[in-house]
Write a structure and sequence with these properties.
The complex is a heterodimer. Chain A has one domain (12-309): Rossmann fold. Chain A is 29% helix and 18% strand. Chain A has helices at 27-42, 57-60, 79-89, 101-106, 109-118, 162-168, 182-194, 220-226, 276-288, 306-309, 322-325, 329-335, and strands at 49-53, 70-73, 94-100, 122-128, 173-178, 198-204, 227-229, 231-236, 251-255, 261-266, 292-299. In chain A, strand 5 (173-178), helix 7 (182-194) and strand 6 form a beta-alpha-beta unit. Chain B folds into 4 domains: 7-187, Pyruvate-ferredoxin oxidoreductase, PFOR, domain III (Pyruvate-ferredoxin Oxidoreductase, domain 3, 3-Layer(aba) Sandwich); 209-391, Rossmann fold (3-Layer(aba) Sandwich); 405-481, no CATH class; 486-599, Rossmann fold, CATH 3.40.50. In chain B, 39% of the residues lie in helices and 19% in strands. In chain B, helix 2 links the parallel strand 4 (70-75) and strand 5 (88-97). In chain B, helix 4 crosses helix 6 (167-187) and helix 7 (211-221) packs parallel to helix 13. At the A-B interface, strand 2, helix 3, helix 5, helix 11 and helix 12 of A face helix 1, helix 5, helix 7, strand 8 and strand 9 of B.
């Protein structure tokens, strides 16, 4: 790889998009910038990329990266179904979904759950600020109980933990990160690209306009003070011959089917992300302590994705032609065979 | 009296008692004799226990609509016995379980009774308790055969065709049928005039098929590769038939790999979302649903229309509003489907009337969806979808798929620029590219929000309006591309307009009106938007009766909205909406009474 192009020979500019129309300082813009870096470094083919989103501030962001890729800004909370259809139609597409906390945990909760159940091969990012921005600052379902709105209203309802829910539903890749932590977010994104199945990334992304004040649990200050990092992830592409040195017992390596790896360097605590119960415990304990636990929470690289479960042919369904899809003439003739008449008709009987 | 090959048999049974097999054997045996049949299953929304009726109508003319008259009742449901007996026409026949008391409304002096101890016969002759209730139904088939003159060999032949894979079942069922034949021969003295006899000229070259099955075959031959659905009566059997055909014909025998993805979605919102995702990515995709599901699809239908994404939606109509009557038929979604979604939306809607059209329009829907880059709704109904109809064999398609205006990498290489929503040819239909196209110009951003002809976000008033106008232009282009109406016209003043399954009642009604001295011309509308021929036809007639199966005269209202003012007063509305398929009388009676002043 030369300095100015990635493994596909593409310059970084190819991964940029239109200028953001979100507020200055919005966490979502940081996520977009980290995403551009991750897509570039990983070497995602822009022609294979399908950028999917629902409705909301987060869902506008696919316009802000990889301009030449196809994008689809659908209806509120229903992006998973559109993404599912697109992937079934052409399994060669790399599906990247951008959603928000309202789009996922409120109006879109059903589709979110069923996408996970099906293990759709897609990267699904939740740009999570705990509130509705475009409609001026109402709570969303990921707002923590007790969190306070700008005008003083207190959230009386339990939060929906989209990561805990995902793990419970059998998700095969669940991570949480922070929009401002590129060091953690970029390798997690690249790992998500390599994962075969639904990769959920809940990225806490403060809303500078409506939810960045004292009393909010999704503000920059709150996140900085309560951030509990599980491990330091490094992404190593399979094509990269570099061996990584680490002391035995100080890191856990997870290998994907395509040969790529993610190395999780241990911090003060042991954390095994291949243990589902362990993941749930870490999230519950973190919440009790008021901490935002980030890192690769859970991973299972062995599960089959939707296209495999459906046993779809390798050739994209969208490319199949008449001779591959229509019933053969001889089979058709059998299907349309007339019923045999028992009594040879008829003139003998007519009056 | 038309008693030879002209009668309606009604089997009144309890849902879940297995009467369906018996009714099919009877239907097939009669059909085999060369006698035209029109079976209608009137069933409850229930798994077991509620009343169900199966009518087998037989006419020498081959009328396919329901008859209001019941000539022969087989009464095997004590709960409805009195009401069922009261519905038999004067001079008719009632075959009933012998233990039912012939009193109250069931006691009539204008019908012939044949009491048969069905339960007792079954108990004495069928040792397997689990099979007993099923085989009781076969006993009535035998009784009817004896009374009407169906040869036992016809029934055995029909049984063999029905239980191809279970030869043992043929014997068991035939034994029960013989039980009925023998009982009737030994114990019943025939005093009625009804009988069936083999005939020719009407059933040759025909088979029996239901519309949902035909529509599923249309999906296979139309190249559908993605189907997403949520189970709902009466559309479920469409997707299930598609699953069956894909299992048979779309699986690689060596690898087990499949050339279709069929997803049972979590709801209809997800089902149609998957359809548009797949359509956007270049696959031919469909969903099948009925009323409540169609309501849930409203938001996505607007996205498909405005973002211009192909997709096929089958709506097998049932009786609404709300849950309504899930197992009864109506044509009451026409107005809703045509403009489904908020904002100014107008869709392409195909209105099949026959099994052949259920197949042809299904295939055609995928071509139209691709060509016009828009959702296409195929509106059949429970009557067409779930009942068996006589049909010629379905024709093998000779034309390739019409994939519409798609630019691939090579085509893009020839262009300096292109615009996703640019109207190049003036027909309102733009060009599109598919995700996965390896060319720097290929990508664009699909959105349900305001966009210009480059697909970029726009709130500009002129851009918005120009885009809506182009969509209207596209809709107008479709007027001559959708299935054109079919006319039977001999220069009369008086005319009938109908669509979908109402057609079959109109066919019989026009014969009856003709016998009353009223000759009518006829136009059958087969799609929305209206082709120019519709207004032209009305222009040539003084009085036009629009017949349909809904309360509000929905097609009548659409015609009034689109026709020039001087034609509107020529239209009159005839409506049937009780949930059972329309019969000829429902056309003849209101039309005659409206025409009386004219006749006088």
């Amino acid at each position: 790889m030369t300095a100015n192009v990635n493994i596909l020979g593409l310059p970084r500019d190819v991964y940029k998009g239109l200028a953001s129309t979100l507020c200055a300082g919005c966490g979502h813009n940081s996520i977009t910038n980290n995403l551009i870096k991750a897509l570039y470094e990983y070497g995602v083919d822009p022609y294979k990329l399908a950028k999917m989103s629902g409705i909301g501030c987060s869902s506008k962001t696919p316009a802000y990266f990889v301009e030449r890729a196809h994008g689809f800004n659908g209806v509120h909370g229903r992006m998973p179904s559109i993404a599912t259809g697109a992937k079934l139609a052409n399994r060669e597409l790399m599906v990247l979904g951008i959603s928000g906390d309202g789009d996922t945990a409120s109006i879109g909760l059903g589709q979110y759950c069923h996408m996970i159940r099906r293990n759709l091969d897609a990267t699904y990012i939740i740009e999570d600020n705990g509130c509705y921005g475009l409609t001026k600052g109402q709570f969303s379902a990921t707002a923590d109980r007790g969190s306070v709105l700008k005008k003083g209203q207190v959230n009386e309802f339990e939060t929906i933990d989209v990561c805990g829910l995902a793990v419970e539903l059998g998700a095969t890749f669940v991570a949480r990160s922070f929009s401002g932590d590129g060091k953690q977010l970029i390798p997690l994104l690249e790992a998500a690209f390599s994962h075969r199945g639904t990769a959920v990334l809940d990225v806490i992304s403060p809303c500078v306009t409506f939810n960045d004040h004292e009393g909010s649990t999704k503000s920059y200050n709150y996140v900085k003070e309560h951030h509990a990092v599980l491990h330091t992830p490094d992404f190593i592409a399979g094509s990269n011959e570099i061996t990584v040195d680490y002391e035995p017992g100080t890191a856990q390596e997870i290998q994907f089917d395509n040969g790529d790896r993610v190395v999780l360097r241990k911090l003060e605590r042991d954390y095994d992300p291949t243990d589902r119960l362990n993941a749930l415990r870490a999230m519950h304990e973190g919440r009790e302590r008021g901490e935002l636990v980030t890192g690769l929470l859970f991973i299972d690289t062995s599960a089959r994705d939707l296209c495999e479960r459906e046993r779809l042919t390798r050739k994209p369904l969208a490319h199949l032609q008449e001779d591959e899809l229509r019933i053969a003439r001889e089979d058709w003739a059998q299907l349309m065979a007339l019923p045999q008449r028992k009594v040879p008709s008829a003139s003998a009987h007519s009056e | 009296m038309h008693s030879v090959n002209d009668l309606t048999i009604r089997a009144a049974t309890v849902n879940g008692s297995g009467s369906q097999s018996a009714n099919l054997v009877l239907t097939n045996a009669v059909f085999q004799m060369g006698i035209p049949v029109a079976p209608k299953n009137v069933f409850p929304s229930n798994i077991e226990g509620l009343p169900t009726w199966f009518d087998v109508r037989v006419t020498p003319q081959g009328y396919q609509c329901r008859s209001r008259d019941v000539d022969i009742l087989v009464a095997l449901n004590p709960a409805t016995w009195h009401a069922d007996a009261a519905e038999v026409r004067s001079g008719g026949v009632i075959v009933h379980e012998a233990s039912y008391a012939v009193n109250g409304p069931a006691a009539r002096d204008d019908v012939t009774y044949y009491a048969v101890p069905f339960a007792k016969l079954a108990k004495e002759h069928v040792s397997d308790g689990a099979l007993r209730k099923y085989l009781t139904n076969m006993i009535y088939v035998g009784v009817l055969a004896q009374l009407l003159g169906i040869d036992a060999s016809e029934l055995e032949h029909a049984l063999r065709a029905q239980f191809k894979r279970k030869p043992q079942a043929v014997e068991t069922n035939m034994d029960a049928i013989r039980l009925g034949i023998d009982y009737a021969a030994q114990n019943l003295t025939k005093t009625d005039l009804y009988r069936l006899q083999p005939m020719s000229g009407k059933t040759e070259g025909k088979l029996l098929m239901d519309g949902n099955n035909a529509a599923a075959l249309g999906c296979v031959m139309g190249g559908c590769t993605v189907a997403a659905w949520y189970p709902i009566t009466p559309s479920s059997s469409l997707c299930e038939a598609f699953i069956g055909y894909c299992d048979r014909f779309r699986v690689d025998k060596e690898t087990g790999e499949r050339k279709a993805a069929i997803i049972q979605a979590e709801d209809e919102l997800a089902a149609i979302g998957m359809v548009f995702g797949a359509g956007w990515a270049g696959a031919r995709a469909m969903t099948s649903t009925s009323g409540p599901g169609l309501s849930l699809m409203a938001e996505f239908a607007g996205l498909g229309y405005y973002a211009e994404i192909p997709g096929v939606i089958f709506d097998v109509q049932r009786a609404g509003p709300s849950t309504g009557l899930p197992t009864r038929t109506l044509q009451a979604d026409v107005g809703f489907a045509y403009t489904l979604s908020h904002g100014d939306t107008k869709h392409l809607v195909l209105l099949p009337a026959t099994v052949e059209e259920a197949y042809e329009f299904s295939m055609q829907a995928f071509d139209l969806a691709d060509r016009f880059q828009t959702p296409v709704f195929v509106l059949s109904d429970l009557d067409l979808g779930m009942n068996l109809w006589m049909t010629p064999p379905l024709a093998y398609p000779e034309k390739p798929f019409d994939r519409g205006k798609v630019l691939d990498a090579n085509a893009l290489g020839e262009l300096q620029s292109w615009g996703r929503y640019r109207d190049v040819e003036g027909d309102g239909i733009p060009y599109r590219t598919l995700p996965g196209t390896a060319h720097p110009l290929a990508g664009y951003f699909t959105r349900g929000s305001g966009h210009d002809d480059q697909a970029a976000y726009s709130e500009n008033p002129d851009v918005y309006r120009a885009n809506l106008d182009r969509l209207a232009r596209k809709h107008d282009t479709a007027r001559t591309a959708v299935p054109r109406p079919v006319a039977q016209e001999l220069g009369r003043d008086l005319a009938v307009i109908a669509y979908g399954t109402t057609h079959h009642a109109v066919v019989e009604a026009r014969d009856r009106l003709s016998r009353e001295g009223l000759e009518t011309d006829y136009l059958r509308v087969r799609a929305l938007p209206f082709s120019p021929e519709v207004a032209e036809f009305i222009e040539r007639h003084e009085r036009v009766y629009v017949v349909e199966q809904n309360r509000d005269g929905q097609l009548h209202a659409l015609l009034r909205a689109e026709l020039p003012a001087h034609l509107i007063e020529r239209l009159h509305s005839i409506r049937h909406y009780n949930g059972v398929p329309i019969d000829a009388g429902a056309v003849v009676e209101p039309l005659l009474s409206a025409e009386k002043p004219v006749l006088a």
